[in-house]
Design brief:
This protein has 234 residues and is mainly beta. The chain has two helices and 18 strands. The strands form five sheets. The chain has a five-stranded mixed beta sheet with strand order 3-1-8-5-6, with no helix packed on it. Strands 10, 12, 14, 15 and 16 form a five-stranded mixed beta sheet that branches. Strands 2-4-7 form a three-stranded antiparallel beta sheet. Strand 5 and strand 6 form a beta hairpin.
Length: 234
């Protein structure tokens, strides 16, 4: 039995339709799945979603990213990888992409902190202070930075050395004016430092006490008034 060309074409088309229905797949669509990647220490996370997981070939896919303040910050670089060998540095909250072939694609987003170190400010309390009294120093960064260390210079030739804590306590032993500052670094390598802060240290006054009695000489069984006077008064 020989089939006519038209009947043969219709028969083959029906076979293709039946095969597609049996497998439950659409012959001209692609699948999107997210690949989870870890962030660097001290770097915020960016969330990414797609408008659909199953996309007809030839249609744009829209990726939505958040939070916006991280995307637009110059302190971070956000890279969106589409899974088809292409990627894009992102500043906007929505990005569109066109896939050229059917298949399963794994997309991901990566956030990298820029290497520029943050400005640091030195605070000191109380100021002014008397010699021998403790001054509390603290360093404050304009933004977070991974593995940062601090080194306090008190202005009298002494320093704290590199430490992880952003706070330090110190007592000046002599009166005068000292220019204190703090350096920041990673693994004992200096990255930046604060402006100098003047610390005024006053000389501690010696306290004396004078005692007087009235009347003198005293008489037996008569009251005597004692008066104590401190110098300086306070």
């Amino acid at each position: 039995m020989r089939l006519q060309p038209r009947l043969l074409s219709a028969f083959l088309f029906a076979v293709v339709l039946c095969s597609t229905a049996a497998t439950g797949q659409r012959p001209s669509s692609l699948t999107l799945r997210q690949r989870v990647t870890g962030s660097e220490p001290g770097v915020p996370t960016v969330d990414v979603t797609v408008d659909r997981r199953r996309v007809p070939l030839g249609e744009l896919v829209t990726f939505t990213l958040s939070p916006e303040n991280v995307l637009r910050s110059s302190r971070y670089t956000v890279t969106l990888t589409f899974g088809d060998g292409k990627q894009q540095s992102v500043r906007a909250t929505a990005v569109s992409h066109l896939y050229r072939a059917v298949g399963t694609y794994y997309y991901s987003v990566k956030v990298k902190g820029n290497l520029e170190p943050p400005p640091v400010t030195l605070y000191a309390t109380p100021v002014p202070v008397n010699a021998g009294e403790q001054v509390n120093f603290s360093a404050r960064l304009s933004w977070s930075y991974p593995n940062i260390q601090y080194r306090f210079f008190y202005g009298d030739g002494n320093s704290s050395g590199w430490q992880d804590s952003s706070k330090s306590n110190y007592a000046f032993q002599s009166a005068g004016r000292y220019s204190a500052y703090v350096d920041i670094g990673v693994k004992a390598k200096q990255l930046g430092g604060s402006t100098r802060k003047e610390i005024t240290v006053n000389q501690t006054s010696r306290l004396t006490v004078a005692l007087s009695a009235n009347p003198t000489p005293a008489q037996a069984r008569k009251p005597v008034t004692f008066v104590a006077r401190a110098t300086p008064a306070g």
